[in-house]
Amino acid sequence: MNGAENLHHRIVIVGGGSAGISVAARLRRRGEDDVAVIEPAATHFYQPLWTLVGAGEAQVDKTARPEASVMPKGVRWLQEEAEDIDAPNRVITTRSGVKVGYDYLVVCPGIQLDWDDVPGMASAVGHDGVSSNYRFDLAPRTWQFISEFKGGTALFTMPAGPIKCAGAPQKIAYMAADHFRRQGISDARVIFATPLGGIFGVPEYAAALEDVIADYGIEVLYQHELIEVRPESRQAVLAVRGEGGGSTVTIDYDLMHVTPPQSAPDFVKKSALAVPGEPKGWVQVDQGTMRHPEYPEVFALGDASSSPNSKTGAAVRKQAPVVTENLLAAMEGREPTATYDGYSACPIVTGRGKMLLAEFDYSMRPTPTIPFIDTTRPRRDMWYLKKYGLPFLYWNLMLRGLDR
Known about the structure:
Elements: E1 6-14, H1 18-29, E2 35-38, E3 43-45, H2 50-54, E4 64-66, H3 67-70, E5 76-78, E6 82-86, E7 91-94, E8 99-107, E9 112-113, H4 121-124, E10 130-131, H5 139-148, E11 152-157, H6 168-182, E12 188-194, H7 203-216, E13 219-222, E14 224-230, E15 235-240, E16 248-252, E17 255-257, E18 262-263, H8 266-269, E19 298-300, H9 313-331, E20 344-351, E21 354-360, H10 380-396
Parallel strand pairs: 1-2, 1-8, 2-5, 8-19, 10-17, 11-12, 11-17, 12-13
Antiparallel strand pairs: 3-4, 6-7, 7-8, 9-18, 14-15, 15-16, 20-21
Helix pairs in contact: 1-9
């Protein structure tokens, strides 16, 4: 694309992940014919399955499809990387210099993995027992290291601050512990380090997970955050947070799964759309309407928005209809009335063939959507939902704007 080219579209969507494609599909179904999606990647990923890839229970190639195959017909795909959002002038500049003007903007570029925020992490992942399910190329390495583990210390870490799928760091700990038990590895010391003061924010689900932890004999280090990786000596340095914090703990590991700190992409951070004074740079939105308070032509959803929900695909699934309805209302000069209640779901696998489904909203109380069964405890039918049902829903309904 010519870097000097100037474009204009009535609706521009920044991001072609689950949020961007879902909203684009819904807008097309409502008759909008001037929609553009700015997305540099040629491949679209179903990331929730990477936990099972890392546990040896799914194939990584099943999580990827060409971006072109999910782009709604009639939507213009600008395969460019956004570099600047000039909100006052309603112009986006891409890395190649293309300027894209808009009347209305939907910001959903996903989340940025800040590997370099933890010294040693970026160079360690993928080698010598250190991996992460937060990248397509690394999830298979996680399983390689778990399957090769013969005993010693297996450390699983979680960073401070919002991250996508906050349950993922503990899911792989459970799956690894289950594998070690099945393999008869009796001298496996499994540690889960979290900067939080509890295992889960909703008491009903926390109680079930504490039973899982006790059954596996997992050591949980609450209010501990990874601050340095020393791959040459296979050591992890953890800072003690909270009351009585200020000290550090060094753990020798044989296997480690790391979760990088995360934030909004840098081009969002430096824009006028970011929450003032927020170092993570989330796009400021009203948590109900998902509309920017200062720029009424701008909406945001997904991982990069400031709405205080858990950053999951299930949240996007409920946000997309709200953003679509409110964007159409704004375009017609009406006041947006659709409201997102903070619903999110976290399918937490607790071992091979076992999963509990944590569903909650802004109230941080259980909000179950499946009738007649107790999803607050690990169940085999929920495992099949995770492995087969949710991917089918994603590819065939959600990305096509057909689900509610």
